[in-house]
Amino acid sequence: MSREYVLIGVEGNHDQAFISKILCKLLGFSKFDGNVSELNGIWRKFIPVYPPKTGKLYLRLDMPTILYNDRISLAIYAGEGSNLITNLKDKLSDIDCSSLFAFAIVADADKDRPDQVAEEYYQGFKEYFPDFPTTVSQSGNVIAGSPRLGIYILPDNSQQGVLDTLICDCGDLVYPEYMQRAREYINKFSEEEIKSL
Q1: Are 119 and 173 within one domain?
Q2: pLDDT by residue (tens digit) across 49-73?
Q3: Count of other CB atoms within 10 angstroms of residue 183
Q4: Are the C-beta atoms of residues 95 and 131 closer than 8 Å to each other?
Q5: Residue 161 half-sphere exposure, CB side, CA atoms within 13 Å?
Q6: pLDDT, tens digit, 9 for 90 and up, residues 104-124
Q7: Are 107 and 16 in contact (CB under 8 A)?
Q8: Both 194 and 147 in a single domain?
């Protein structure tokens, strides 16, 4: 069965797990079982080589999470935080980008303005995707074309923050009493202790 290919780049393993869980729970995707003989051709280029080029034996291998449904084969690639652009460009240089149905980035705003983050990713990927979103006003939306393109800046396309900011907001809705107790515990630490942690 032929499927359309979708590639989502994220900064880290927690982002990868979070996006995977959402896609499986809310959109009915299934996880690929890991059998290389059943891996869709385009994703074979993502199979990491061991040991990596760096020669570091304990470096985590960067195999994407592969999900699928009847129509789509989707890879979520975790690119080591601030190295996402560089690492994902290495992978993109080895595949036919025109075979992608969609390409997206989910990234943390951290302490930057979401506009700055969107611009950084545009600069990083315009070589492969000239129509990649450049501003926050475009983030959270899918840009029609071939491939479809998108970026989402965590926590909400408008504020500074990270995935944990979004998860804490969810916790406030579902487990308000536990979140309050957790904040009380954290507030017992001094500024110096928090910085050292």
Answers
A1: no
A2: 888 777 888 877 789 999 999 999 9
A3: 11
A4: no
A5: 15
A6: 999 999 999 999 999 999 999
A7: no
A8: no
